Prior knowledge:
43% of the residues lie in helices and 29% in strands. The chain has three helices and six strands. It has helices at residues 2-15, 26-31, 86-116, and strands at 36-40, 45-48, 50-54, 57-64, 67-73, 78-83. It has a three-stranded antiparallel beta sheet with strand order 2-1-6, with no helix packed on it. β3 (50-54) and β4 form a beta hairpin.
Amino acid sequence: xxxxxxxxxxxxxxxxxxxxxxxxxxxxxxxxxxxxxxxxxxxxxxxxxxxxxxxxxxxxxxxxxxxxxxxxxxxxxxxxxxxxxxxxxxxxxxxxxxxxxxxxxxxxxxxxxxxxxxx
Length: 119
């Protein structure tokens, strides 16, 4: 019973990323190696593991298969850049894990108390 709950918690924790609402610049995003969501002028959104600056060029780095792939980025082609909000992401992940676990534990305790009291 506990192993599936732990596996589910691990999967949920990996899946939720909250991004800052305030857009960032390529330069700002490259200074902090965190997940970044980029929206181009056509409205297409791409998520990168991080933005990297090398030799005056910016690259969006994402994992494809077992390799990290770099995609050149220019500010003129991008409408919005949003970096990961670490604090909000942590709270969402904790909430997604802690609240269901809390309710399962409380329900189990209530059932045990009810059975123990003869009801």
